[in-house]
Specification:
Number of helices: 7
Order of helices and strands: HHHHHHH
Number of domains: 1
Number of strands: 0
Largest sheet: none
Distance between the termini: 30 Å
Radius of gyration: 20 Å
Strand content: under 5%
Length: 155
């Protein structure tokens, strides 16, 4: 078996595995959102952050896996378009950090809810919680702006 035929076989398996991961991931994250956004759990800061992380993860999967599968069968769009290549890298990095930030905030919120200190427990009030959920993506789309602006791609 030659190297080229081995690589073609790996490419076929990769598209199958990525397709399965995409379907299972989207279904799983949708169920996470349905569970964590129930009326009873909506007021819980941990649940809201987990739901926001699930939405961010679902966006990452859809945004990153579909073009990867597409590039197996067609010419990758980033090969001929420098702007698309830079934006894809920028958006992927921002979305991954957004998801991690929500998971970190979920841990902090769980700690705050179990704290003996009343001031710490009141940090994640529903009004503040909504602001945090909205501000996190704004911050993480501003911070990595250096990626599309300063990155140079050769070859």
């Amino acid at each position: 078996m030659s190297v080229i035929s081995t690589l073609n076989l790996i490419q076929q398996y990769l598209t199958i595995v990525l397709g399965i991961l995409l379907v299972v991931g989207v279904i799983g994250n949708t169920f996470n959102c349905l569970v964590f956004l129930r009326k009873r759990l909506r007021s819980n800061a941990c649940s809201v952050f987990f739901a926001a992380a699930s939405i961010a993860n679902m966006t990452v999967m859809i945004y990153y896996i579909i073009p990867t599968i597409h590039s197996v069968y067609n010419k990758p769009p980033e090969n001929g378009n420098l702007v698309y290549c830079k934006l894809r890298l920028y958006i992927r990095n921002a979305l991954l950090v957004i998801s991690r930030s929500y998971l970190t905030l979920a841990c902090v919120a769980c700690y705050a809810q179990t704290s003996r200190n009343v001031r710490i427990r009141t940090i994640f009030r529903p009004k503040v919680l909504l602001r945090i959920v909205i501000i996190i993506p704004i911050i993480w789309f501003i911070i990595p702006l250096h990626i599309p602006l300063t990155t140079t791609i050769q070859n």
